[in-house]
Amino acid sequence: MLHSSFISKSNCTKFPPVASPNASLSSFGPSSLLQMGLKWSRITSSGRRLSSKVRSHATQRTANVFGRQARERVLEEEAPEMAETTPSFKIFPGQASPLGASEVDNGINFAIFSQHATAVTLCLTLPLRGELDNLDGGMIEFSLDPRLNKTGDIWHICIEDLPRSNVLYGYRIDGPKNWDEGNRFDCNDVLIDPYAKLVEGRRTFGDPKHKLSKFLGTYDFDSLPFDWGDDYKVPNIAERDLVIYEMNVRAFTADESSCLDQNICGSYAGLIEKIPHLLELGINAVELLPVFEFDEFEFQRRPNPRDHMINTWGYSTINFFAPMSRYASGGGGAVGASREFKEMVKALHEAGIEVILDVVYNHTNEADDKHPYTTSFRGIDNKVYYMVDLNNKGQLLNFSGCGNTLNCNHPVVMELILDSLRHWVVEYHIDGFRFDLASVLCRGSDGSPLGAPPLVRAIAKDATLSQCKIIAEPWDCGGLYLVGSFPNWDRWAEWNGRYRDDLRRFIKGDTGMKGAFATRVSGSADLYCKNKRKPYHSVNFIIAHDGFTLRDLVSYNFKHNEANGEGGNDGSNDNFSWNCGFEGETDNAGIVALRFRQMKNFHLALMISQGIPMMLMGDEYGHTRYGNNNSYGHDTALNNFQWQQLSARKSDHFRFFSEVIHYRRKHQVFCHENFLTKSDVTWHEDNWHNPESKFLAFTLHDKNGGDIYLAFNAHDFSVKVSIPSAPPARHWFRVVDTNLASPDDFVGEGVPGIGGTYNVAPYSSILLEAK
Hints:
The protein is α+β, with helices and mostly antiparallel strands. The chain has 15 helices and 33 strands. The chain is elongated and about 90 Å long. It starts with a strand and ends with a strand.
């Protein structure tokens, strides 16, 4: 099979437009082109002669392929002498729906939206199996005639006799060059179809030999439908019962301490192997950091302060339909990644664990106008896909902090996002989505906030998404902070940033935080008790992927981001952390003990709170990033799960974390459907208005008598507290005292003999159960 490209000298195109309805049924080969008085051109990336018999003259052409300047030699050849090397295709006008590549009765149909384009060219390459990591071969190109291959703003073409898989494709698109009006057309760029269901690029994550590899769409109509199994069913866990574990697919098993075969380290298959750990921990939902296709080498495409970094978090989407291909084991590529992703979801579901995806619809990888990385949307129709400031020379608006902002509420972009979400639910059986910087979804095309954003409403009302968990990160980098007021239609949950901040401040001993702490652990009714919203519309968290890990939260007063290359200017300065007396790692036994006690206090508070608790991967053993609170670009132990450290802490720190999670799931007093009433909770407090008071005790009442008493002491001294009477015919048993060493810090069956008072140690907490 030849790696070649056939082009004409004008408009970067090759196959001519279909000239008439009759011509659309012609078989295009050298003879038919000759009859139309046209020539074919053949391009090779090396510029070598194709045959000693070829009569040609050489011209030079520079193609800008995703930021690379590739010098190519064009050999113009008369068509009759190309007959033995020219493929033959039968071409039809095609159809406008569905968008993307689809199999139809008479071939493969390609359809793409571009409202402002003046010329569209479909580019194909048919690589040999096993050579997909090298995309530098030639391309076959088909120019689309707007009279026949365009319906409305959809450009389309159907090609017969194409292989049903293993084809790579993209588009060259031309149009107005007026930047001031927001256009960014360049027909030299080969662009990824926004509706490509699979994207192919380099095969191995972080492979420096293919640092500048291109990305193209592909399709697979050969594989049989995935077998989900006759007994397969989704867990369908009620929102109030969720315990979420935020994690990174690659970082979970990339480290050699995972003791997995090297071929599956850092892959979807690797995650499957570690499901027993998730079950032992006790969580029942994973929230995966972005798994849509992204380019981990995006920081290394040009010299810059971050050009030593590899994007391991993935918040830089190339395509919204394709699973990250380099998370496939053994370099399995796009098709392998799709299959393996489904295997992972199936295995998690069989274990009773739901799968929530962290999705990034607020911006893409294509950066800004100063240093653009054009791969798709920018070159297809920039002023439709992105917010642009037409009052400022058509510059991109930037509410994402990443150089561009997706124009989410434009009808075409909104439908793209909805189609993407439906695809992940129908094709991959995803249970829910967490929307990164979701306040962007609440902005109009000019960036102004919308009271009833169409996209947010459509997601809430969509039939296919009706059973999905939908979670907003209710802020963006433009200052639109919507915690508690995100447009919700009684469906949307939110990352509760107020919960994070208030919990951090109370546990570390800030003054005046007792009332806020009580409000947060009881479900944040001040934020969410509106209309038909519920306590579980608050996703409670103390730690997330961005920011300190739990161990660093109690070990550092300041961020230490020097390794990121930005002089420590990146990352948040408002961490509400406390190093317990020393900045960073220390051998001081007293400080180390206090830090682990504080981590237990945070974890207990999180797991007894009304709402949905979310914890971060690695906190169950005390993972440290050594004070780096913005570690997105480190494909190292800084981010990677350290399995040997887990083993070292299995009997104490991990045991406590696991036991508390399992305890929460067994006791419905922590998972109320509705907000707490006076019959649900008793606050043992008459000192609410004293800002110096850092002690709080309360009882959660169980209708069957199994009450839970909790006390949190954030003072640096002990507090002797009076214990209320247990319910009739019951006695208090101590389940948790974070001041005690393992295994006494958690005793599931409870320790009897609790008297009328209890001495709560400094910076500690207790849980008593009435039995």
